[in-house]
Amino acid sequence: MPFDWSRLIGFALLFFAAAGLAWRLLNRPGPVLPAPQSAPVAVARVLHEYPHDAEAYTEGLCFRAGAFIESTGLCGQSSLRRVGLDGGISQLHALARDYFGEGATCWGDKLYQLTWKAGVGFVYDANSLEQLQQFTLPGEAWGLTHSETRLIVSDGSDTLYFLDPVSYQVQRSLKVHEGDCAIGQLNELEYVRGQVLANVYGTNYIVRIDPDSGRVLGWIDLTPVIPTGHKGMGVANGIAYDRMGGRLFVTGKKWPALYEIGW
Q1: Are the CB atoms for 90 and 60 separated by under 8 Å?
Q2: Model-wide pTM > 0.70
């Protein structure tokens, strides 16, 4: 029987693909906590507490016209929803079952939502939540916000990506660091007063980032607002800024509450 070179080549390609994936995972910067000589650390203070759907696997959060726009995850449960301060859901757009919803942002009369590994993002009418179009993402997507000119995306690494809001092409990338230390696991994002705020996945911290240099400007310790005693509650994930009122809100995956905080 002749030697089956095609099978050998197939096994080799599979091996190198698996090795490449393992290398990327092993070399992805993990979560980093503030060091003793780090940038300033502010401890969050609860100013107001609001109800939150304890079944919502929060992946993205923004504030528009007196209500929250919330993106929820998990395949078969992902959605984009409009939620009042009373926790009531006034509008809901369910994603197809094979999509895992991720970060979301409100920009003018449009809403943008990412999906995790599908390589697709969606654009909606901000009033009706009607889907207007979809766009291609360069890879895995976690958090989303925007500056005055660019969409800003995280992928769980130490890198932020700045996308053109028309072509959705990456215009530049930015490594987030504190001194020589890479800050990885960047998750949900919010653009606040010229800074990018990011949940650091797996920790109780929000990191404040200079969008020009990637330098860490400071940290917000969410420990005082972490709810306790709720079965199935996940990590802190969800930052929304009320630009008109100057209010900052935070929540988490399956948290029973959403908080306005001072910092």
Answers
A1: no
A2: yes
Order of strands, sheet of 67-72, starting from the edge strand that comes earlier in the sequence:
58-64, 67-72, 79-83, 89-94
Say what percent of the chain tops pLDDT 70.
Answer: 86
Cα–Cα distance between 44 and 206 in angstroms, integer? 10
d(CA 115, CA 75): 10
Alpha carbons 21 and 24: distance in angstroms, whole number:
5
The tokens of 134 are what? 């979809």
Tell me what the pLDDT averaged over the chain comes to. 89
C-alpha distances in Å from residue 94, one per residue of 89, 91, 141: 13, 10, 19
**Structure tokens, 95:** 């994603």
Q: What pLDDT score was predicted for residue 17? A: 41
pLDDT band with cut points at 50, 70 and 90 for residue 224: very high
Nearest to 232 by CA among 263, 253, 211: 253
- What tokens were used for 47? 């100013």
